[in-house]
Amino acid sequence: MSASDRNSNLRAVNLPADWSPTSWRERTALQLPSYPDAADLESALQELRQLPPLVTSWEILSLKQQLAEAQEGKRFLLQGGDCAESFDQCSSDVISNRLKVLLQMSLVLVHGMRKPVVRVGRFAGQYAKPRSADTETIDGVTLPSYRGDMVNAPAFNEAARRPDPRRMIKGHARSAMTMNFVRALIDGGFADLHHPEYWNLSWVGHSPLADEYRRMVNAIGDAVRFMETLSGSEVHNLNRVDFYTSHEALLLPYEESMTRQVPRHWGHFNLSTHYPWIGMRTAAVDGAHAEYFRGIRNPIALKVGPSVTPDQLLRTIDLLNPEDEPGRLTFIHRMGATAVAEKLPPLLDAMRRDGRRVLWVCDPMHGNTESTSNGYKTRRFRNIRAEIETSFELHAAAGTRLGGVHLELTGEDVTECLGGARELTESDLERAYRSTVDPRLNYEQALEVAMLIVRKQAQIAAPA
Ligand code: PEP
Ligand code: CO
Questions:
Q1: Ligand 1 atom closest to Cα of 303?
Q2: Which of 171, 381, 395, 428 is an S-S bond match for 419, by CB 3.0 to 4.6 Å?
Q3: Half-sphere exposure of 360 (CA within 13 A, CB side)
Q4: Is 198 part of any domain?
Q5: Where, by residue number, does phosphoenolpyruvate bind (predicted)?
Q6: Terminal CA-to-CA distance of the chain, rounded, Å?
């Protein structure tokens, strides 16, 4: 048992006495579908309660330990994946390509920042989405909004949009398949540093960033061979990495059904994912989501948007991490490139003045969404870059630390975000825009983000 686990086991005495996996039901729950038939819902939940978990408590506690290290600046968090997974995209190529991008980015970060990376995918459960309106009207017809594949289907007709509780069971199965394939790849040596070529995507060779990436891979290969020559044997532990999962724990009936007690540990764990987060629209401190999250032992994250006040943030910590447990709470700020310099510093100052500690992470995607004249929802690479770079500077100025990034990306060769090394333009969006929800960085743009993080962090650490 690790020191932090022993430590957190001592906390059992402080278990919130008035909490249970169902106590969220007494609060206002935003963004939940209204299921037409309560008996159908209950029967689906009953089935889910019997199904095996997707992750284990010891993986959850080891991630919490790694996040505690990230909070102290000893690691950097890379969290990324689709805005929304979809049931038909649960395929071997989509899963392995996404894993390849995350592995390549983490290699760039480890090499450039000289510290280990905590790798977390937005996958194996990212199937429920908050929406700005409950309904959508097209040509005079009004139907419930699409809320992610775990709730309903995107097609605009009544049957597709009706919330169906059986979709939670399918979502659990798709998550298990994704998880199973990721685990098999990692255990089979897919992440082996002796073979970074396993992670090459077919179009890498033509990328404007290819030379820089290849030089880095060669340098790492030389270092590994040097160590092996010196020690006369293969350097072990280079052939596998830890990989964790996360999703927005929006659909509380599902999350409740996956909330379990396990032998030899006190309290409850959400065993549908390692690292659930609360989205910006459901982050109210007196709301149902905060109530649910307060009682689980997972490391948890909360999105922090531009309208959050310092006082709200401090009350959120009182509720979600009253004992200041390291690694327990992450704040993911997503202000937008134009608002971040005004909105973030008051929050950082209040936290520092009050001696509160969390892991700070920047999501440079969700505050930078816009629509183009030809009707695409997109994000400009230069705004994404500006929000990351400004965030590093603001944390340095406030005496806090930016400990990670949260990105929407894919290993597919899509054209959804504008700009980047290949300078995608509005007309390029028509070529390969595939997201049904938010625009994602493609492989190249994601790698470029990793490279710019390394450069910015070095500049902050050693100002010219
Ligand atoms: C998301 O991460 O896909 C999302 C909806 O983010 P936010 O809650 O920050 O808007
Ligand atoms: Co999104």
A1: 9
A2: 381
A3: 23
A4: no
A5: 122, 303, 334
A6: 44
Residues in the chain: 464
Atom of ligand 1 lying closest to residue 122 CA? 2
Structurally, how many domains does the chain consist of? 1
What is the residue whose two structure tokens read 């500049």? 459
Q: Which of 270, 114, 97 is nearest to 190 (CA)?
A: 97
Q: What is the CA(363)–ligand 2 centre distance, in A?
A: 10
What's the token pair of residue 69?
Answer: 């290290």
Give the confidence band of 235 by pLDDT, cuts at 50, 70, 90: low
Show the tokens assigned to 292: 């649910």
10 Å CB burial of residue 192 (0-12, 13-18, 19+) is middle
- Does residue 103 fall inside a structural domain? yes
- Sign for the CA dihedral angle at 45, 24, 332, 260 comes to negative
Strand duo 135-138 + 141-144: pairing: antiparallel
Q: Is residue 329 part of a domain?
A: yes
Q: How far is the CA of 302 from the centre of ligand 2 (A)?
A: 14
> What does the pLDDT read at residue 202?
63
Contact in structure between 24 and 292 (CB atoms under 8 Å):
yes
Nearest ligand atom owner, CA of 406: 1
> What are the beta bridge partners of residue 418?
380
Residue closest to 293 by CA, chosen among 21, 9, 10: 21
Portion of the chain with pLDDT greater than 70, in percent: 94
Predicted pLDDT of residue 199: 73
Residue with tokens 């009004």: 142
Report the CATH number at residue 58: 3.20.20.70
The answer to whether residue 53 sits within a structural domain is yes
Q: Could you tell me the pLDDT band of residue 11, with boundaries at 50, 70 and 90?
A: low
The ligand 1 atom nearest the CA atom of 281: 8
pLDDT tens by residue, 107-142: 899 989 999 999 999 999 999 999 999 999 999 999
Minimum CA distance residue for ligand 1 atom 4: 279
CA dihedral sign of residues 92, 451, 212, 220: negative
- 434 annotated as a binding-site residue: no
pLDDT of residue 236: 62
Provide the residue range defining the domain that includes 457: 38-187+241-461
Provide the pLDDT for residue 462: 82
Kindly give the distance from the C-alpha atom of residue 309 to the centroid of ligand 1, in angstroms, as a whole number: 18
Residue 140 CB burial class (10 angstroms; 0-12, 13-18, ≥19)? exposed
Q: Is 408 annotated as a binding residue?
A: yes
